[in-house]
Fold:
Amino acid sequence: MTATSTSAAASVDPATTAAISLRGVTKAFGTVHAVRGVDLEIRPGEIVAFLGPNGAGKTTTIDMVLGLSRPTTGDVEVFGTDPHTAIRKGLVAAVMQTGGLLKDLTVTETIAYTASLFAHTAEIRDVIDRAGLTEIAERMVGKCSGGEQQRVRFAMALVSDPALLLLDEPTTGLDVEGRRAFWSAIRADARRGRTVLFATHYLEEADAYADRIVLVSHGRIVADGTAAEVKALTAGRTVRATLPGADTEALRRLPSVDTVELRGDTVLIHARDTDDVARHLLNHTHAKNLEITARGLEDAFLSLTGNDDTSRGATR
Amino acid sequence: MSTPMTTRAELRRAPVLGGLNRTVLGLELRRMLRNRRTVIFTLIMPIALFLLIGTNESYVHEDAGNGNVSAYIMISMAVYGAVLATTSGGAMVSIERALGWSRQLRLTPLAPAAYIATKMMIALVLGLGSVLAVYMVGMATGKPSMPVHVWILTALIGWVGSLVFAAFGLFMGYVLPGENVMQVLGPLMAVFAFVGGLFVPLEDGSTLQTVAQFTPMYGLAELARSPLTGETVQVSWVLNIVVWLVIFAGGAAWRFRRDTARV
Structure:
């Protein structure tokens, strides 16, 4: 990228410039390493879920994309410019989890206030309509429910007609109805071609609303692909049994077994068909205390991050 | 027809004046007036105090230089109202920080300086409202008496001088947490007003007056009343105002920079 004069921005081709580009980004707070080296490119028009458990570094990464914090090392670019400039030009908007609202303004006033700060804006009434706020447009924000307030935040983000929309766990604390209404508003909007990056720790949300899922754990990207690809990682179940002196080689040879893990006298077998495994254990070994559990996202994270985690050496 | 998304960075621009605009000023003013406590505090209380003390018959007949003591008290109450108003205006940042609104604004093109300028303007509008309200009630009672130019001059000094307290409110708004900063500042302001000679005249040469010279309302009170009392403007008054302005504005700038720093 030739970043020389003031014409640098104009020389950037919109078709190839990434909406978000993170290169070697790390972020440390004292001795806590929240983000440990993230490389990520998001193309214009993509809807990407940033999926990971709490403390994975999702919010820290989003804060850096928004220019609220600076990376310790590495580069963050938004539409080929620095995050702060992208914000000033109204290219980026975000919906945060909580806060960020004045209780003593009405819904319409809040949107009008926000709109007035931008050089380029969408039609206020249209935005209110799209966020599903028409009926409560004249209500004080302080009197709105959690779900309604979240849609106000969404409308505030929409009013600048941003090219990139960031949502940080946008449905945390919402009831089922609030969740549904919020996502249907997002989904309707996404059809307009906006780039969306949302953080979540629900696989179902990521699966339902994203074209692409980026799995993060312990400050690193551990998987990046379509929803189907990432879901496959969480398929199958785990059999847990007490079996002293287990023959792990024999177990691994069983059909449909993915991994076998030994923890002292306990053996953990991940497989697509756990019934077969259980039958084998009960019929052909002295295994006791069998438990079969669905392999959740948490397990997927563990198995994905376990590879480069030498402290968990009992996998053989 | 172009595409709905203007993604190209070069087609977007930042707002003029860092985002400072009339919509925001209007809405901020509306918020201020919606806050019943602020209105009672800054508009009604100074008027009530004036009616209670300043309209006493003996004060109407007592001379205070270019007018009567009733006018003297009216000016004091207007200054008190103005500083309460500007302090409230500045201290609103505390509420906005507590609510996460300041953080939200950082996701917009609004320049931090434009935000502060907005707060200052709103504080001054409210301060002007307070001064005018007290003066209009004073006029309506017919008790205060002074030449027309002294009415205007004293009101102007009280109003412009209250800017010092907009900085004070801002500083405190950044230092003190929570949504009820004025509950802490209110009593403190009453002490300042008492020691600064807004409630009771300070006796020349008294210990109180010696101490008063170093408190933040003293200089403004003396300066605002000088067109009435006919006293020559003293260096110590101006110094008092300037030094406190530097302290408050400096403190506000220091805390503000910490608040908006990107870590």
